[in-house]
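Good day; I would like, with your permission, to put a structural problem before you. What I wish to show you is a protein chain and, alongside it, a tokenised description of its three-dimensional fold. Please examine both parts with care and let me know of anything in them that strikes you as inconsistent. Thank you for your consideration; the sequence and its tokens are set out here:

***
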Amino acid sequence: MHRAPACTLLVLCLSVVLTSASQTTAASIEAVPGKEYRLHKQNGPWQIMVASFRPANPDGTVTEGKSPEELAQDLVLELRQKGLPSYTYSQKAINERIETKDKLGREETRKFLTTYDQVCVIAGNYNSVDDPTAKQTLEWIKKFRPKSLQQEGVSWLETQRKKGPLSRAFLTVNPLLTPEEIAARKHDPLLVKINSGGKYSLYENEGKYSLVIATFSGKTLAHLGDSNSPDALEAFQVSDNLNEASHNAWEMAVALRELNANIDAYVWHDRYQSVVTVGSFDSADDPRLRRYLAVFQAQPGGDIDQMANTLRGLLGDASNHFGVSAGNSGVKFLTIDNAGSHGNEHRMWLFDPEPYLMKVPERR
């Protein structure tokens, strides 16, 4: 018998936002064995995060049986055969070695792993989070026990009540859409509420655009090992609430503003993540964008010493808090030693590799 790998299933908490489309009947949902059904921007805008697959091997390899991609496709096909439009979405990890300094100024190398490579299964297409069909389908998914997951070598993180492999499914938005695209979909009173009155809110930005440089997801789940391993239990506790994401974003914005480097940072929160933006621009061609891109944008394969000199020329002494990862991605990061409520905690944040402009939202 051909065995499946030690491949673990977990329900991932990803950021997602989608466009229109309504639930369709089983007869109209294509379900062709062997065909890939990948997530696109036109799906959604609201969907259900069903599950996420990754190998149990620490190095991400699969020595026998089916790969995470194959298992995800099996589940997608099974859901489609039940009449539920489903898709796969792959997320790559950022696994870099970062050259930084400790509190005594000594150089050290740290390994920064934001998540693990994983393949997600996302289902349904709903216009809003309040769609009654979405809620009914979510409850059905949580109780569903797919045959594709009932094979040797596949394990999952059970809830205490052992409700099944998909019991952690939740409603979310399409991860392919940007915060600007999300904000443009619909005026949301909740977003007005959570972004009003706070210090450095993006509502305070007087420009038409601002540059998104960092994203903090409200629910990010990483898993290593099988469901019984200590590593699995530890990894399962990574950033599982929006409060932590919003606090991290706010703390980064404060740190950037206090560097005396002429960086005007802002924070924007939505239903699934928080972002940090910099700058106030009148158009996408604003010449002031160049400085911010030179500071925050990743430079794959670039010379680290040369990039450090560029940062020093742009930021002066504040450049001591900036660095470039030693890996090929050239991702930049920020380190602060005087963080936390008592000013004695160390922080390290990676910037998004590709900053992008988002339109400053209106309160309406």
